[in-house]
Structures are given as structure tokens and as C-alpha cells.
């Protein structure tokens, strides 16, 4: 499987990130995946890619509080 290309992706900062810049999560969607990155690291941030099914399952888990322990 080829790694998704996020080089031309439009990144969006999470609405849950705080205004002080201490917790800045960004998300970008490309045709084959959704990527998550840390805006504090800028272009040096690694991108965690999710396939479409995994991204949907991740969001569902967050929304249903299954990740809180």
C-alpha cells in the first residue's frame, strides 16, 4: 500500500485545541486517508494517517466516550 500524500492537503486546526497554542491538533483529508498532525511542530510534524474505516471508527469511539478510562 502506498503512503497517502498530504503535501497539498488543506489542514484544519481542531476546534478542541486551546487558544494558547499548547494543544494544537490538525486534521487533513485526502482521497485515500485522513491525517492528524501537531501544529506546534509545523512542517516537521509527523502525520498519523487513518484509512476511511479506521477514521470513522475512531470518531465513533470518541463520540461514544469509549476512549475515556
- β-strand amount: 15-25%
Please tell me the total number of domains: 1
Mean pLDDT: 86
SSE string, helix = H, strand = E?
Answer: EEEEH
Word description of this protein:
The protein is of the alpha+beta class and 69 residues long. The protein has one domain (11-64). The protein has one helix at 52-63; strands at 12-13, 25-30, 33-38, 48-50. A 4-stranded antiparallel beta sheet has the order 1-2-3-4.
Short structural description:
It comes from Actinopolyspora biskrensis. InterPro entries: DUF397. The chain is an alpha+beta fold and 69 residues long.
What's the layout of helices and strands?
Layout: E1 12-13, E2 25-30, E3 33-38, E4 48-50, H1 52-63
Main traits of this protein?
69 residues, alpha+beta, 4-stranded antiparallel β-sheet, 4 strands, DUF397, DUF397 domain-containing protein
